[in-house]
Design a protein that fits this description.
alpha/beta; 12 strands; disordered N terminus; six-stranded parallel beta sheet; 398 residues
Length: 398
Amino acid sequence: MPYHSEFAESAQATAPRLECAKKICVVAGTRPEAIKMAPLALAVRKDPRFELHLLATGQHREMLLEPLKFFDLEPDDFLGIMKKGQTLDYVTAAVLQETGKVFDRIRPDMVLVHGDTTTTFASALAAFYRGIPLGHVEAGLRSGDLGQPFPEEMNRLLADRICTLWFPPTPGAKANLLAEGCPEERITVTGNTVIDALLSAVERVEHPETPELTRIPEDLPLALLTAHRRETWGEGLERICDAVQELLRFEPHLWFVIPMHLNPVVRHVFVRRLGEEKRVILCDPLHYPDFVWAMRRSFVILSDSGGVQEEAPALSKPVLVMRNVTERPEAVEAGTALLVGTDPEKIVAETRKLLEDESYYRSFLGKNTKPFGDGSASAKILEALHGYFQENSIDIKD
């Protein structure tokens, strides 16, 4: 059941709205969306030209609400669609139907979606059906393969086809949109809002709160590993575990932290294969501040995540991308990321080289540590929204 937040209402009241303030509905469904949309939601909330309505679908439940709480945000509506064993069919239908009901009730002037989740596609479609202007944050990312990542590549392609405004994080993402026929005057390169979130979090995080993290010896190297994508399930996860076990044999001082996705398909493999390893900390998904701490503490990051590829360069950490293709080529071009797939030999070889060859490690950091922006993405998006409303309305004021 949706609920309305007293905290959100009181926070809105602290910033006087213009009489003609435009209602912006910010949608998030998963933990990564919550992190990446939080700084934008805060910026909207503080700007008197706009009125914020934060809509959380609950595609993830606790994993979604925790980072919002860290940023002092609470949804105006929480749909809570998540259920055990949910399918893509179910999530798509539930988000489409339930976000549509909210849009009918609140009548937003603009809906903002993020990235490539099922929430992104389905809520974008609900806005499209109602003729509500739609802005896509992190638009234009492309792997060129509908199966990698799955179903994310399809989600972002379809969302971009029905947008009003596009906010690509990089010039390369903008070029993808232009090649697909999106009008240049509606495209604004912003950088990625995850950098806005990261820079804010770094200032507030000093020590981890997760007890397991205190077991890590301060003077030994740490590898942070995350893996959860559907195309990695099964054999891919088994091969990743092969690599971890091999590295533990070769590198007697190396520790691993592996925050496990809540999906039992992922957790079962890690627990079965690595649950008895003394230098492997298997834990629940870390709260966002602890994950930021773990990234900063790590010597190297191994991940199939998209967001980590963006965050690692900003923290000057090399990341081995356990995927065959990436829609974020800027990290590879900057020299901070390397595609290794789930090949155990390549994962082991590259990790050991980073650990043992200081000059290679330094070169891996690349020349550009800000390929995804400088933390001003949210401000750029607000100005683009203001410009759009100025062009299409007579009542918005400076």
